[in-house]
Specification:
538 residues, 14 strands
Length: 538
């Protein structure tokens, strides 16, 4: 069917439908708009449904399913009003080919062209811009924790914005850094006192991401298009600058902002090259995921080396002693790039989808990689790999800079040129690493949780992923196992302690009301009777 014969079935209110029917067709997009099924001369190439008002999720899902069943294989484009008040995340489960909220005419034409070419489009505004919706009711304790974390998060965002770049006034910088440490300590204290609260926390962190529009465009449904979309989104996130919203110290924070950006972009480019090599590998024909993961692991050292060379620059030379040496060669020779991060998840999930075109498991559902939910999960996994790999390289660079003073001016932040400040940062990172290895990691393994780092626009955010980690728990060292046993003992003893405290409280209530209260009442009655007799005599 040629473009002139393509028909689009449009369901919209009368006035809006007439306007869209007149404005969508252009010379670049020569299509015919049909307002009803009776006007069709054949099967439609696209079905557009403009939702006039807010609709219940179940009704909306049922109507979308009926449209898809009636007009398959034509894709479906859903147009939402600007004041749509439902949770935007719930729209991802509609499995609709295209979803646009309050689009302009140019965006609508681009979306139509993309869908006609076999792609997918998604543009949903954040819920914060919509009218208030019903939220799940929270208890007083939950409300206090959520509101406290929200307030701390807002204050941290303001302070981190003031520290990027750091103010020239030394006292002001120290005050802001101290305030930032106080807020993070208060946040950790809240979570420690009140316990892990999962209800409502998904809406608390990250705070800034609630104001971002969820926008995705896939030119086609192939894994290469999915990877290109993810790569483009991550490049935009890295290029906009990255703040630290993880609540912990990162080694890449010590790097100069330009070097930090270059490192992440270089790793992203190397990942692109690795995926191309894996797609052309003979292992793809066997579809052996374990062999693919082993091949991936064998390429990690080379990936780090190439990324390190990109950051250093192939032609950059710096003095070392009495000679002028190439920085890239020295860094590759003096860094240990064979180490790995134990918190990195199994790469089979992202490799099987991006290389073998296999579905992604999301919330108990097997979804194709072009599904927005699957794409966002793949993006999170890739973001985590980027940040954690950059952390390994950043730690090695900080160690080399400690032995090579001339390198500090080229790679590190201005305040880390001082030997004292650099060593202080390294000591803090080492102490944090030991604490995470001895305490936090055993607890996360026992809770079957994995800490991921997600790249958002302007910020690195933490994300807890729940998955079975029993085998890793069994391989813990003796001391780490004792930490897990302490947590287990706390969980076992806590109900009995709570019951004991409750019974002691009930006993105190009985003593105060039945014993002490009655005694005070008898004493008061005696005093009143004595005063009455005295008044009667007088």
């Amino acid at each position: 069917m040629i473009d002139q014969d393509r028909e689009i079935l449009l369901f919209a209110p009368d006035l809006l439908g007439e306007s869209l029917a007149a404005e969508i067709p252009t010379e670049e997009l020569p299509v015919r708009i049909r307002r009803s099924a009776d006007q069709l001369q054949g099967h439609p190439s696209l079905v557009i449904w403009s939702l006039p008002t807010e609709t219940q999720p179940l009704i909306l899902e049922r109507e979308i399913l009926q449209l898809q069943q009636r007009w398959t294989p034509a894709p479906t484009l859903l147009l939402l009003p600007a004041d749509y008040g439902r949770d935007p995340q719930s729209l991802l489960s509609l499995n609709c080919d295209g979803i646009l909220q309050d689009p302009d005419l140019a965006a609508l034409r681009d979306a139509v062209q993309t869908l006609l070419n076999g792609g997918r489009v998604l543009k949903i505004k954040p819920q914060a811009e919509h009218s208030s919706t019903s939220q799940p009711s929270l208890s007083m304790a939950q409300w206090l924790l959520v509101s406290g974390l929200q307030q701390i998060g807002r204050d941290l965002q303001v302070i981190e914005a003031l520290l990027d770049p750091p103010p020239e006034h030394f006292v002001m910088r120290l005050m802001l850094e101290g305030r930032c440490r106080e807020l993070r300590s208060a946040k950790n204290l809240l979570l420690w006192l009140w316990g892990p609260l999962h209800t409502g926390l998904a809406d608390v962190m990250p705070l800034h991401d609630q104001s971002k529009t969820l926008e995705l465009t896939l030119n086609d449904r192939e894994p290469t298009a999915v990877w290109n979309a993810i790569q483009q989104r991550l490049e935009g996130a890295v290029s906009s600058g990255l703040g630290n919203g993880t609540g912990q110290l990162l080694a890449i924070e010590g790097l100069h902002p330009e070097r930090r950006r270059d490192l992440l972009l270089a790793l992203l480019q190397q990942l692109h090259e690795v995926l191309l090599r894996l797609r052309g590998d003979e292992l793809v024909g066997t579809r052996d995921q374990k062999a693919l993961s082993a091949r991936w692991q064998s390429l990690q050292t080379e990936v780090k080396q190439q990324a390190l060379r990109s950051v250093a620059g192939n032609y950059v030379r710096l003095p070392q002693g009495e000679s002028l040496v190439a920085v890239a060669d020295q860094l590759v020779d003096r860094t240990d790039l064979h180490q790995s991060d134990d918190e990195l998840p199994d790469p089979q999930t992202m490799l099987a989808s991006l290389v073998l075109d296999q579905p992604v498991l999301v919330d108990g559902q097997l979804l194709p990689s072009d599904d927005p939910r699957a794409l966002l999960q793949l993006e999170t996994l890739i973001s985590n790999w980027l940040v954690r790999t950059a952390e390994l390289i950043g730690s090695e660079l900080l160690g080399i800079c400690g032995e090579w003073p001339e390198l500090r001016r080229y790679l590190l932040q201005q305040n880390l040129i001082s030997t004292r400040e650099l060593e202080r940062l390294r000591n803090q990172l080492n102490s944090q690493s030991r604490w995470q290895d001895w305490i936090e990691r055993p607890i996360r393994l026992y809770e079957s949780r994995r800490l991921l780092f997600s790249l958002k626009t302007g910020r690195i955010e933490p994300l807890l992923l729940t998955e079975p980690r029993d085998e890793e728990l069994k391989r813990l060292r003796w001391w780490q196992q004792q930490v897990a046993l302490i947590v287990e003992a706390r969980d076992a003893i806590a109900p009995q302690v709570q019951a004991l405290v409750k019974r002691l409280g009930d006993l105190m209530v009985v003593v105060l009301t039945q014993v002490v209260g009655r005694a005070i009442g008898l004493i008061g009655r005696g005093i009143a009777q004595g005063m009455g007799r005295s008044l009667g005599r007088s």
